Amino acid sequence: MRVLSADDVRAAVPMADAINAVEAAFVRLSTGQADVPLRVHLATPERQAISFVMPARLAGSDPALGLKVVSVFPQNKARGEPTIYALVALLDPATGRPLALLDGTYLTALRTGAASGVATRHLAREDARVLALFGAGAQALPQALAVCAVRPIERIWLVNRTRDHAQLLAARMRGAGMQQDLRIAPSVEQALAEADVICTATASPTPLFDDALLRPGTHINGVGSFRPDMAEIPPATVARARVVVDQRAAAWAEAGDLIQPRAAGLIDESHVAAELGEVAAGQVPGRRDPTEITFFKSVGNAVQDVAVAALAVERAAARGLGTPVAL
User: Fold this and answer.
1) Fewest 10 Å CB contacts: which of 117, 129, 186, 250?
2) Which residues lie below 8 Å from residue 220, measured CB to CB, with a gap of 6+?
């Protein structure tokens, strides 16, 4: 068995390759070539925390089998620890033998960014030049890297409640080699006045902006909210947008961005136009015209983790990355 650290995963799978792996996994998910039960939720009420167990099996000519355990402990922030910890286990799909253990914290950020990259590839306008990025946590940099990998982004507005955190994010982005014009937004209005693409990666329980601020033709990636009581996107925006999700069943079980507008009578389940895999497979059109508002809502899916983990392990073995361990 091989153990891969975050640095090993980072070295093995650049963002562009993660986007392609996640796109292929979503296609398999939406074409019946994957088995993904709804994830198990384990609450830790005294810590206001939650853990998830997320298994997946990818079938077809290149099968993969594995699971992720991920925990969200918001109180960790006050102790100087990450709020998200995760571990991915990969198994031999022919025998069930354990193949690898991977740091899942970085892998989660990588595959979540990659999903937004896939959605932006299929739903954003080809001429998108400006990104507005909400949030400055662990998900923020991968979101920016993914969008910039598929669209010619020239300017990025950083929108965050704490200016110091936005400045730290800008420094991380420059350290990652990003050459775009990075600006800390003085207001949400300033950022959205120019934005062609919006990424929301926060833990906000309430919408981050007013629907009226959106420019025609804006594409939105919503990846932060993961419970029915959380919503980053205004219900009015959801109601008028072309909505694409990672998986219908999971989205309607967990995505407050959809559940809350449905409860208010603004949408029903037919309002979801497609799963992202259906769009990527060419079964359902993505963006239909330059003025359309498009919205990709992700709650995260284990096919992303297993697909990226399988690619990381394959490359790690070829390049001598990671640590072999005998069980």
Assistant:
1) 186
2) 197, 198, 199, 200, 233, 237, 241, 293, 294, 295, 296
